[in-house]
Amino acid sequence: MSLESYMNQIGQQARAASRLLAKASTQQKNMALLAMADALETARPRLIEENLKDMQNGKEKGLDAAMLDRLLLNDARIDGMIEGLKQVATLPDPIGEITGMEYLPSGIQRGQMRVPLGVIGIIYESRPNVTIDAASLCLKSGNSTILRGGSEAFYSNQAIALAISEGLSAAGLPPEAVQVINTTDREAVGQLITMPEYVDVIVPRGGKSLIERISKDARVPVIKHLDGNCHVYVDNEADEAKALKIVLNAKTRRYGVCNAMESLLIHKEVVNQQLPVLASALEEKGVELVGCVQSQAVVSSISPATEEDWYTEYHAPKLSVKVVDNMDEAIAHINKYGSHHTDAIVSQDYTKARAFMTEVDSASVMVNASTAFADGFEYGFGAEIGISTDKIHARGPVGLLGLTSQKYIVLGDGHTRDN
Amino acid sequence: MSLESYMNQIGQQARAASRLLAKASTQQKNMALLAMADALETARPRLIEENLKDMQNGKEKGLDAAMLDRLLLNDARIDGMIEGLKQVATLPDPIGEITGMEYLPSGIQRGQMRVPLGVIGIIYESRPNVTIDAASLCLKSGNSTILRGGSEAFYSNQAIALAISEGLSAAGLPPEAVQVINTTDREAVGQLITMPEYVDVIVPRGGKSLIERISKDARVPVIKHLDGNCHVYVDNEADEAKALKIVLNAKTRRYGVCNAMESLLIHKEVVNQQLPVLASALEEKGVELVGCVQSQAVVSSISPATEEDWYTEYHAPKLSVKVVDNMDEAIAHINKYGSHHTDAIVSQDYTKARAFMTEVDSASVMVNASTAFADGFEYGFGAEIGISTDKIHARGPVGLLGLTSQKYIVLGDGHTRDN
């Protein structure tokens, strides 16, 4: 079969399965999730065996230690996947909720019903556990899924796919509700993102270059984030102790995450007082500082920042520092150089807190809290499929609701429209 | 200035203006709308004069009568634009609404704030009144607008643009909040839809070929609908009188609208009884019928339908008719051949009504009501910028809410994340 026919078949099967999933009961979906957990448990030896093939291939191909670590499936990680499935089964089902039913002057009643998006394509890189994470959230929200993992995790993903389809069948749901593409041909991705008749939305999970490529070529809506260039602005009305806690947490909790602070803005009136304290606490943790001329004048260990630094998500123990004249300059800087992901103000001033929340154009805006909270679990969604920096549809951490749509429903009793 | 520099300038100005609009008060936006109404009133003679140029050019270019009619600005249509501005001023302002603030286990409070999308690009064809309709809804929802009208309405649109910017200035808002592109170069559209740094969403209004072209080439999200291939399914449990009223209204109220019925599905058990009544009522109104073999056996005046007919939005006094064995077949037909716009069931059966609402994958699903109700005014939104058949972001009639986004806001008091 040609790749095109294969992808079309995958698409048609996904669409057909989505019709059945859309009317599956919560109980049936939960049963499938738990049956998938059982199937993973049973498949444990096979999973580790198949993963070994990927690990050996990866070593032969010269993957670095970090990539090999992401690729590895061991008992703890399989436990994690099983636990994840059980957790998703406990989440409330968003599907079918009816809201806003109102009688209108014409006599009809109009409201909205929450429904699945339909078919979701997930494109991801080396970590095989994404197969389970993504499939479980899509299934719970009534969507069928087409998964395309990295070629380096091919055998692991196929083994996981088998367990998934066993679980689906055990619960009486179509095994095509979750399909893992069984070819490593890169053209399969090109097909997947240009089949709007079969795929309703694409969620790419991986490095920036992967996501940029997909966004550029997709003919299907993409839920994505490219960058997490997050800021903390320390205002002249900031409480010093809170500023220190928040700055340290936002930068040093973890360096490789998208909600880490990459740029610190500080009001000129408090820079002499507070920047030395903040800088030495950060440097003690091993954070390298670059900054504007004014910040260098206060803390001599700060190296000069280039224009490019203000745009940069370091993903590393490095931070850019800028002194600003006032909050408006901080907001303008964030809106210009930031990535519209997550930005925070530290201030005790009520009016400024209110204005910062309104004017900063980001998916999450925080007052006196660490940017690290921008996360589906911390926001109480139980799980997340990713974080969106897009403005349409899902913005910020995307949980089950982001995988749904609302259609209008109208109830009448023979009503017709007059004019 | 090159077209590229010109479009970049337009984009930068729109982005800068959007920052000011995002924090403009409701009162200020309403004042601008009313000042725009006054400015249109004052400009009335100039509008008619400039429109005359477009009309003359159109006649010379050989535009047909329907297009010339859409192009025409007369006193009644200017009254309509002025009235529209005043109505939008009375609509509730969606911006700034905060919902769902919840305390989470970490101690932070998390909710969502409704904010403008930012910059909206509107691409439309001949009708100059769209300039006002679109600009007023975008302004009320705090967005700046870049408008690109049809070249045939160039002079009319420029004259309207001048009145708009007078109104904005009078209310102390930046005139760049609404910009009308002042070139007829078609490449301007190509630029507009590929500037994600300056434009947040594109709303194309016009024929299917325009919208298809834009969707294909856009690098910016598009809110659109391509087709309105709407169905009414008359169930074997339908009330006959209601079925007749609804079928007639859905088909014959207006033929050129996207919420008109284009296909009638009827249950085999009631086809002998009801189809002759429905067919003769429709034919009396001048509707041409094509249909499946079974429908032809019952009503001899029905001509044979081709496979293509089931996909077709006639926009004309023509209807396809299909006899189905049961509701499941009707739903499968609608989901396969329909355009996911608006579909209705006529039935007194509770269980079927419930299943139809759940399983039909359309932006609006109706029970015992005419498809003609799928409309922003009828749904109580006060106005609409269009109807979306997309599943993500706005689905169905799009009012002010569809032009907004929700960002997360987090309140803490020095909170940091532990793990």
UniProtKB/TrEMBL annotation, chains A, B:
<comment type="similarity">
    <text>Belongs to the gamma-glutamyl phosphate reductase family.</text>
</comment>
<dbReference type="GO" id="GO:0004350">
    <property type="term" value="F:glutamate-5-semialdehyde dehydrogenase activity"/>
</dbReference>
<feature type="domain" description="Aldehyde dehydrogenase">
    <location>
        <begin position="8"/>
        <end position="284"/>
    </location>
</feature>
<dbReference type="InterPro" id="IPR000965">
    <property type="entry name" value="GPR_dom"/>
</dbReference>
<dbReference type="InterPro" id="IPR016161">
    <property type="entry name" value="Ald_DH/histidinol_DH"/>
</dbReference>
<comment type="function">
    <text>Catalyzes the NADPH-dependent reduction of L-glutamate 5-phosphate into L-glutamate 5-semialdehyde and phosphate. The product spontaneously undergoes cyclization to form 1-pyrroline-5-carboxylate.</text>
</comment>
<dbReference type="InterPro" id="IPR012134">
    <property type="entry name" value="Glu-5-SA_DH"/>
</dbReference>
<keyword id="KW-0521">NADP</keyword>
<keyword id="KW-0641">Proline biosynthesis</keyword>
<dbReference type="InterPro" id="IPR016162">
    <property type="entry name" value="Ald_DH_N"/>
</dbReference>
<keyword id="KW-0028">Amino-acid biosynthesis</keyword>
<feature type="domain" description="Aldehyde dehydrogenase">
    <location>
        <begin position="310"/>
        <end position="375"/>
    </location>
</feature>
<dbReference type="InterPro" id="IPR015590">
    <property type="entry name" value="Aldehyde_DH_dom"/>
</dbReference>
<protein>
    <recommendedName>
        <fullName>Gamma-glutamyl phosphate reductase</fullName>
        <ecNumber>1.2.1.41</ecNumber>
    </recommendedName>
</protein>
<comment type="pathway">
    <text>Amino-acid biosynthesis; L-proline biosynthesis; L-glutamate 5-semialdehyde from L-glutamate: step 2/2.</text>
</comment>
<keyword id="KW-0963">Cytoplasm</keyword>
<dbReference type="InterPro" id="IPR020593">
    <property type="entry name" value="G-glutamylP_reductase_CS"/>
</dbReference>
<keyword id="KW-0560">Oxidoreductase</keyword>
<dbReference type="Pfam" id="PF00171">
    <property type="entry name" value="Aldedh"/>
</dbReference>
<dbReference type="InterPro" id="IPR016163">
    <property type="entry name" value="Ald_DH_C"/>
</dbReference>
